[in-house]
Amino acid sequence: MTAEQRLTAVENDLETVKTLLMSAASYAESANRGLDRLTVKVDELTASQAQTQTQLDRLGSRVDRLFEAQTQTQAQLDRLGARIEQLVELQAQSQARANARLDRIERTLEGLLSSQAAEREAREALREDTERAISQLTERVGQLTQDLTASVEDLVGMLSQLAQEAAQDRAEIRRIWQYLLSQRGNGNQPS
Fold first, then answer.
1. What is the reported pLDDT for 100?
2. What's the rounded Cα separation, in Å, for the pair 76 and 27?
3. How far is residue 123 CA from its own chain's centroid?
4. Which partner from 62, 117, 142, 161 sits 20 to 30 angstroms from 37, CA to CA?
5. Alpha-carbon torsion 29, 30, 31, 32, what sign?
6. CB neighbours of 134 closer than 8 A, spacing ≥ 6?
7. For the chain, how long is the longest CA-to-CA vector?
C-alpha cells in the first residue's frame, strides 16, 4: 500500500471518527433537551400541586368558619328555647294574661320554627356542598398524584434509555479509537 493510499485510509478513518463523535454529541444534546423539557414539566406539576394545596387550605378555612357559624346559631337556638320556657312558666302564673300572650308566642314560634327549618335546610345544603367539594378536591389531588407519578416514571425510563444509548456510543467510540491507535502503534494502516 502506497503512502497516498495509507493517507487516504487514515483520512477516511478520521472522517468516520469525526462522524461518530458528532453523532455522540448530537445524542448528548438531544438527551439534554429531553431533560430540560422534563424538568419544565415537573416544575409545572409542582406549581399545580401547590395551587391545589392553597385551594385546600382556603376550603379548610371556610369550613372552619362555617362550623363556627353553626355553633353560634345553635347557641342562639338554645337561648330562644330558654326564652320559650320562661314564657310557658308565665302562662302557669296567670291564665288570663297567658291567653293573650300565648297568641303572640305562637306567632313568634311559627316564625322561629320556619327560620329554624330554613337554617336546617341551609346547613344540610352546606354540608352536602362541602362534602362534594372535598370529594372533588380529593379526586383532583389523586389524579395529580397519578399524573405526577406517571410523568416521573416516563422521565426515569427516558433517562435510562438515553444513558444506555450514550454508554453504547461511548463504548463504540472507544473501540474504534483503540483499534485506530493499535493500528498506528503497530505501524499497520487500517484497512
1. 62
2. 73
3. 31
4. 142
5. positive
6. 59
7. 139
Q: In this structure, what C-alpha cell is assigned to residue 106?
A: 305562637
Res 152: pLDDT: 82
Which residue do the cell numbers 320559650 mark?
84
pLDDT in tens, the chain (191 residues): 788 888 899 999 999 999 999 999 999 999 999 999 999 999 999 999 999 999 999 999 999 999 899 999 999 999 998 888 888 788 878 776 656 677 888 888 888 888 888 888 999 999 999 999 899 989 988 898 888 888 888 888 888 898 899 999 999 999 999 989 888 766 555 55
The Cα-based distances of 90 to 99, 100, 130 in angstroms read 10, 12, 43
Specify burial of residue 63 (Cβ count, 10 A radius: 0-12, 13-18, 19+). middle
Q: What are phi and psi of 180, to 5 degrees?
A: -65, -40
Residue-level pLDDT at 98: 53
